[in-house]
Amino acid sequence: MKTRSLALSPVWSLLVVLGSLLLMACPKDAPKPTADGEGGAAPATTARLKIAVIPKGTTHEFWKSVHAGAVKAAKELDVDIVWKGPLKEDDLKAQVDVVSTFVAQGVSGIVLAPLNDTALRAPVKEATAAKIPVVIFDSDLQGDEHVSFVATDNVAAGKLAGDHIAKLLGDKGNVIMLRYQEGSASTANREKGFLDAVHAKPTLKVVSDNQYGGATTESAFAKGEGLLVAQKADTGGVNAIFTPNESTTFGMLLALRKSNLAKKTKFVGFDASEKLVSALKDGDIDGLVVQNPFNMGYLAVKTMTEHLRGKKVERRIDTGARLVTKDNLEEPAVKEVIAPDLKKWLGE
C-alpha cells in the first residue's frame, strides 16, 4: 500500500511564505512614537522634521536674535522650522491659539517661550497627548510635560544687576525696581535675584518694587514716569533703578530723559538693543545684563532635533548671561552677544 504525499498546493505555499515575511517585518517589541516629558530620547525618525518655534512676541530685538539662532540651527541640522508668535508680549490668547494650530497641523515638535507659566500648560499637555514633544525656552513653564528647558539662569542674572548697583552706590542708597508683568517666570526670577542681592546689603533700601511696566515701551514709559514722581526722584528720593527686560528698560530710559534724571540716577537694565547700547555708551545707562538670545534660539532647536532623532537631552540647559558696561563694551565676546549678524540668517 502506497502512502499519500503531504506536499502543499502552490497556493498554500505562497500563503505560508507571505505570512513568514509579515512576521519578520513586524517585531512585537517595535517602539511606538512618544513625546517623552522626562528628557529621555524619543524614537529616532528618518522623516524630514518640521519644528514650530513660538516666541513670546515678534517685535523686540531680543526675539529677532532668537529667530536668527533658530534659523542657523535649522540649516546646520537640515530641519525645517516655522517661526510664528504673537505680535505683542501681552497677547496670551494669540499664543495659545498658535500652539493649538501647530498641534492640529501635526508638526514634529514645538519649541515654545511661554507668555505665562501656568496658562500654557494646557496647550502643552494637548501637544504631548498628540505625541508632539515640546521644548520650553526663555521662560519656564510649570509641570513636567516638556522635554527640556533652554534658558538663562535668570535668578543669577538678576543678582548680577543687584551686585552692580550695590557697587555703583557704595552699598548705600534708595533703590527702585520696575517689574515687567505678572505671570512671566523669566522676569520674575530676574526680579528675585536682584532683590536678593540688594537685600544682602543692609544699607541699601528698596523703596518700590511692586509696580509693573507692562509688555510695551509705551506702558513702561508711563509707569516709569509716574514712579519717578511718586518717589520724588528729582529731589534725591531715588539713587538707582533696575528694570528686568528690553521694553521696561527702554521705557524707563525715556522717563529718565524726560525728567532730566538721566546720568543723575544710576540705572541698570536688562537685554540689549541698538538704542539701549547707544544709551550705555552715552552714560544714560550704567549697565545692561545681557543674555545670549542667538544661542538660546540655536540650542532650543538643536535640543528638539536631537530629541526627535533619538538622542537623550538634558532637562535644563543654561544659555548664559553677563554684565555689559561702558568699560567692556568693545570686547569681542561682548560684541558677539549684543550685535549678532542677523542679516546673515534673516536677510534683514
As a percent range, the share of strand residues is: 15-25%
Amino- and carboxy-terminal Cα gap? 94 Å
Strand order of the largest sheet: 2-1-3-4-5-11
Number of strands: 12
By CATH, the architecture of the largest domain is named: 3-Layer(aba) Sandwich
The whole-number mean of residue pLDDT values reads: 89
Structure class = alpha/beta
Main features:
Rossmann fold, six-stranded parallel β-sheet, 2 domains, six-stranded mixed β-sheet, alpha/beta, 12 helices, 348 residues, elongated, disordered N terminus
Structure description:
The protein is α/β, with parallel strands linked by helices. It folds into two domains: 50-152 and 293-320, Rossmann fold (3-Layer(aba) Sandwich), CATH 3.40.50.2300; 154-291, Response regulator (Rossmann fold, 3-Layer(aba) Sandwich), CATH 3.40.50.2300. The chain contains twelve helices and twelve strands. The protein has helices at residues 10-25, 61-77, 92-105, 121-129, 154-169, 185-199, 217-230, 246-258, 274-282, 293-308, 332-338, 342-346; strands at 50-54, 80-83, 109-112, 134-137, 148-151, 173-179, 204-212, 240-242, 266-270, 287-291, 316-318, 321-324. The strands form two sheets. A six-stranded parallel sheet has the order 2-1-3-4-5-11, with helices on both faces. A six-stranded mixed sheet has the order 7-6-8-9-10-12, with helices on both faces. Helix 2 links the parallel strand 1 and strand 2 (80-83). It starts with 9 loop residues before the first helix and ends with a helix.
